[in-house]
Amino acid sequence: GESVGLHLPTLSVQEGDNSIINCAYSNSASDYFIWYKQESGKGPQFIIDIRSNMDKRQGQRVTVLLNKTVKHLSLQIAATQPGDSAVYFCADSISGGYNKLIFGAGTRLAVHP
Amino acid sequence: DAGVIQSPRHEVTEMGQEVTLRCKPISGHNSLFWYRQTMMRGLELLIYFNNNVPIDDSGMPEDRFSAKMPNASFSTLKIQPSEPRDSAVYFCASSSTGVGSNQPQHFGDGTRLSIL
After folding, report:
1. Minimal C-alpha gap between B7 and chain A (Å)
2. β-strand B10-13 against B65-71: which pairing, if any?
3. Lesser CB count within 10 Å: N end or C end of chain B?
4. pLDDT class for A98, splitting at 50, 70, 90?
């Protein structure tokens, strides 16, 4: 979908809780999906990716789930820490398309002690 | 390993002046992307290159914007003349593109541009 920065949705969690950030994509032909974390004053940082032949992939404290039927992507962060506070973006693309990514609007994650 | 390097980190200039933003992609990456980020419009793709060739510049807002990639290790985004509405953070990203599956784009820390 088209990225719109105004009025970012915010997810507030307590330190130590698990966080789930959701994302919807629109192109049913997309076969590559990626999550980025953006901290204030920095560029988006790659977190984890997943291809369409998978429905789940795990990294360090993060898990990405892909539901192609409803075109939905989620990022789960286990034991959320204050350093996880940032804006999180999902993006999708089509193989063979020069890695061009379509970014979602972003979700702000606020972690409270 | 060095990531994507952008310069300058901050630029403040008066409207009408020429602005040149620079980017050095990760060594070995063959795709390069320029983005603009604002509060109002979020992250917008301006133009991207593959093997130094511009592939799609449909995101470039006006003829005042131009981008070049003279070699695999350097790209510029130029605005001439600049206007206050060009104020934004400009990001460069690079990735490795080959036949088959996609790879992540890696972003620089951006240039914060303010046009007075």
Report:
1. 13
2. unpaired
3. N
4. confident
DSSP H stretches of helix in B1-116: none
Q: What is the pLDDT along chain B (116 residues), one digit of tens a residue?
A: 689 999 999 999 999 999 999 999 999 999 999 999 998 888 999 999 999 999 999 999 889 999 999 999 999 999 999 999 999 999 999 998 765 678 899 999 999 999 99
Say what the pLDDT of residue B2 is. 85
| Residue B81, C-beta contacts closer than 8 angstroms, at least 6 positions apart | B15, B16, B17, B18, B64
Q: Which residues in chain B have Cβ-Cβ distances shorter than 8 Å to A5? A: 37-43
In angstroms, rounded to a whole number, what is the distance separating the alpha carbons of residues A71 and A27? 8
Given an 8 Å threshold on Cβ–Cβ distance, is B109 in contact with A100? no
Q: Which residues of B touch A54 (CB under 8 A)?
A: none
Phi/psi zone of residue A96: left (φ > 0), alpha (ψ -120 to 50 degrees), beta?
A: left
How many other CB atoms are found less than 10 A from the CB of residue A109?
19
Q: Check A101 against B50: CB less than 8 A apart.
A: no
Give the pLDDT confidence score for residue B37 in this predicted structure. 95
Per-residue pLDDT of A39-97, as tens digits, reads: 999 999 999 999 999 999 999 999 999 999 999 999 999 999 999 999 999 999 988 77
Query: Burial of B100 by CB count in 10 Å (0-12 exposed, 13-18 middle, 19+ buried)?
Result: exposed
